[in-house]
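Quick illustration, no need to memorize.
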Amino acid sequence: MTEGNFVDYVKVHLSSGNGGKGSTHLRREKYVAKGGPDGGDGGRGGHIILRGNKNLWTLLSFKFKRHFKAGHGEHGAKQRSTGADGEDIYLDVPLGTVVRDSETNEILFEITEDGEEKIVVEGGLGGRGNWHFKTSTNQTPRYAQPGIPGQEKDVTLELKVLADVGLVGFPNAGKSTLLSAVTAAKPKIADYPFTTLKPNLGIVQYREFKSFVIADIPGIIEGAAEGKGLGHYFLRHIERNSSLLFMIPADAKDIVEEYEILLNELRKYNPELLDKERIVAISKSDLLDEELKSEMKEELDAYFKETDYLFISSVAQTGLQELKDRLWKQLND
């Protein structure tokens, strides 16, 4: 999927249908004297309904159409005939879509299951016909209820990537290169920061026809929790990953310092992110000779006492199978 087709944040305007008005009809038949009121009820206005669809990965369908209007309910008729309900509008969204009120920023609900349906904007109720209002003292009521108008609402649809493993690292840490090496995905790869502007998903084929999903997410920088760089755009996607793979290049000035900065940004954005399982991958390890690698191991062993780490090289294809094994074990423990 190209970056331009990955749409994960849209604002839409939704209008439900008006309810139909009740009828004030009085029964008139040749051989029925004083037939009385028989006006039917108005139909309900159409709802706007969001529906989860597991086959969708993006909000691309809302890129060019952002105004949706449901049908109005029909008016009631004679012989107590109820008007037809207005046509409901169903909007299919990918799983993991969070729906917010654009004015208050309040989260209304979230779509997490395939086929799950939630009414965003309810249609107006139909008015009652005059036959409801007949009494012994008012046998020919000549009034009925009008239908209730529909509602209008601006909502924000926000997709948070659902993946088994999320890649966390500074720009140019080799995240996209790893994704291209272990999956069939073809992310943009270049030697300048923020090459990845949109999340990329890839399916890792594991042993015995098993698989898991890995997400390459835009790079983080110091201060991202305050909105620097791609800031919250990056961090909100991290929340939906079962496990985190921290990637730090072997040629970094200080591997431990970079790791601490990444942890600190996650902590400031949402402390619960630190409860996720994590592995640290030292990427671009083909730049190291054995002597330098052994020296780094001594330092890293002392620091990463409770965190699993390993050296990998996506270009040289070293350490990738071991990485898959560790990720699979972590996901299934």
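The chain has five helices and 14 strands.
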